[in-house]
Amino acid sequence: MKRLSFRLASSTLLQVASAALLLITILLTGCTAIKRTAIRGQLRGAFIQPPGAELTRVSPSVYSYRWLGYRTMFITTPDGVIVFDPLNEDAARGLAAEIAKVATNPEIKFVVYSHFHRDHASGASVLPGHPAIIAHANALRELEARALPDVVRPTEVFADEARDLTLGGTTVRLIHLPYSHTDGLLMAYLPKERVLFEVDIIWLHQLPPPGVPDMSFAGVRRATEMMLALDFDTLVPAHGPIGTKADVARYHDFLADLEGAFRASMTTRGMTNLAQRETFLRAQDELSEVFFDVEDALRPKYGGWENFDALILTTSVWCLWHVLTGT
Ligand SMILES: [Zn+2]
Questions:
Q1: Does residue 283 lie in a domain region?
Q2: What is the CA(120)–ligand 1 centre distance, in A?
Q3: To the nearest whole number, what is the mean pLDDT of the chain?
Q4: Fewer CB under 10 Å: which end of the chain, C or N?
Q5: What is the pLDDT of residue 281?
């Protein structure tokens, strides 16, 4: 009898434990599902949204063409058109159709690559005419080191810090941003129109998508400082809505706050000298706490940015890499 009641008690306990385990599993799975839904939405915002394509007139002669989550720019002049990144074949066809509609002289004389990445630089093969294709010499070097057959090779490169490109009375200054997002990155500045076109450096009200801060944290910070030194009103970024110089300042502050929070947490946790074996070993154990410190420090000011939850970890890893390596 005793044995039976023990069996009953133990089986009841087992049932209660199984039910509790099931409940915890359901709750945890639910939390994971909710988190993943949020992350999916936040990532979609960076690359895919909004749907479709559209043309925006930025100044009387300057237009921005958006294709899904990507944006490029072109300049119309009496002597022809300067096109920036063609993006891809589909976008380039749409771009050419828009140019034909709005330009008095729609002949594309120049295509300027911001950098070698195929998601911005491919598609020139379907543009009409025979435009010269301009890039920085470092971008050509980066391109030649890779197999990217859908990116038409530049026909003109320059190795200087900047090059003025003039067509039909309009001058655009192509400024090199070395070791920032790739080593051959250019931004395009129109001083008369007070417009700046930049690619993959500035993110408006959002953290950079993972992988996009390709290369140097310090170089990206330096690039934002170079942008702030220019006199302009309108920012045409390669992702997101058209903005202003204040958006550059905001992103510059974000990078400074991120690095500041990172270094403050590491100092508090005694990780300032990672060259010491003991400190380095402790850092490996406590690094997750540093990431949580950084997230807590940034959330009050940046928690409202659209992909904060999804990307604060990858963005912090980018900053960690900078702190560890000096890049
Ligand atoms: Zn890129």
A1: no
A2: 7
A3: 89
A4: N
A5: 83
| In-domain check, residue 79 | yes
Alpha-carbon torsion angle 191, 197, 200, 202, nearest 10: 60
Task: Please give the distance, rounded to the nearest whole angstrom, from the Cα atom of residue 214 to the centre of ligand 1.
Answer: 7
**113-127, 172-186, 201-215, 222-236: segment of lowest average pLDDT:** 201-215
CA of 169 relative to ligand 1 center, distance in Å: 30
For 43-56, write each residue's pLDDT tens digit.
666 556 678 999 99
Q: Which domain holds residue 175?
A: 50-206+231-245
Residue 64 lies in a domain: yes
Question: The whole model's pTM is what?
Answer: 0.86
For the chain, how big is the Rg over CA atoms in Å? Answer: 25
Question: Could you please report the per-residue DSSP string of 138-185?
Answer: HHHHHHHTS--TTSPPPSEEE-SSEEEEEETTEEEEEEE-TTBBBSS-
CA of 288 to the centre of ligand 1 (A): 28
β-strand 80-83 against 70-77: which pairing, if any? Answer: antiparallel
